[in-house]
Amino acid sequence: MTFGAPEWFWAFAILPVLIAIYVRAERRRTTILREFIAPRLLPELAGNVDRTRRVLRFVCVLLSIACAIIALAKPRWGYAYEDVKRRGLDLLLAVDTSRSMLSNDVPPNRLARVKLATQDLINDLTGDRVGLIAFAGRAFLQAPLTIDYDAAVESINDLDTKTIPEGGTNISEAIVLAVQTFGKTATGNRALIIFTDGEELSGNAVKEAKNAADAGIRIFTIGVGTAQGSLIPIESENGSAFVKDAKGQVVKSRLDENRLREIAQATGGSYFHLENGPQTMRQLYEQGLAKLQAGEIDARLSRRPIERYEWPLAAAILT
């Protein structure tokens, strides 16, 4: 047995008070009778029968109060089973883990800022499923769609530029993988949120975005970095160094906002520049995700305890 409102048990503290008041009243009654009735007549005029009735009546009052308190505490035993359908969005977060995300034009670096921003977004979710895709030269599903937000955040924290062994930036593969992951569920409640600097080195992301739109998927792109860009630091045997191209020239990574806008607009989505993380994620939710129609994301058998307050309540009334 469990109780839905166990705090009501504190009301039992009133019972000893009532008992003390009753005992004091009985003693006072006996004292008054002795003042006006001769001792030899007292047993006949104030006999045990009348006292027994008063005691029984008082005990019934106490039992009634006790049963009422138990009813207020909402006793529960047994379970009822029912199908519960939840509504929400299916969200896939695609995070660029290529080496360009080590650029520090946004401190401490682009990837670190993305990790914080995605956690800000997840903290504001209520009932939506979220999954994680990491991509560089290829894309991999790091966490399937789930409502276990702690597990999703843990997967995000594990991301680094070594998560995907193949270098480069292939946004197209991330979109294709998202379409496959969503599958053929009901449209209208699915969104892909891409965090990247937009420097696509292979593939055709705009074309794949149009295919995603045909599958009922809305894409929102989050640009990370600056138009001025910065060099890409790496650790080497001689200390700090910078990424160089095939010709030995130092590579400077820049944010490509135009491409990211094209990708988002191809699906009816929006582009956002990641500046202040919490503020940008609020804009994403309010201006983008909140406008999507929540769909039925799963149905499960729920076990609900049955409240039995009517039994002690009936006893309180009848006592």
Explain this structure to me?
The chain is of the alpha/beta class and 319 residues long. The protein has ten helices and 13 strands. The chain has two domains: 2-78 and 307-318; 90-293, Rossmann fold, CATH 3.40.50. The protein has helices at 14-36, 42-45, 48-72, 110-123, 149-157, 171-182, 205-214, 257-265, 277-287, 310-318, and strands at 2-3, 75-88, 90-96, 129-135, 139-146, 190-196, 217-223, 230-231, 233-236, 239-242, 252-253, 271-273, 295-307. The chain is elongated. The model has no long low-confidence stretch (mean pLDDT 85).
What key phrases describe this protein's structure?
2 domains, Rossmann fold, alpha/beta, 25% strand, six-stranded mixed β-sheet
CATH topology of the largest domain: Rossmann fold
- N-end to C-end Cα span: 23 Å
Strand order of the largest sheet: 5-4-3-6-7-12
Low-confidence stretches: none
The name of the CATH superfamily of the largest domain reads von Willebrand factor, type A domain
In helices, the fraction of residues equals 25-40%
Query: How many discrete domains?
Result: 2
Which structural class best describes the helix and strand composition?
alpha/beta
What fraction of residues sit in β-strands?
Answer: 25-35%
Shape verdict: elongated
Give the second-level CATH assignment, the architecture of the largest domain: 3-Layer(aba) Sandwich
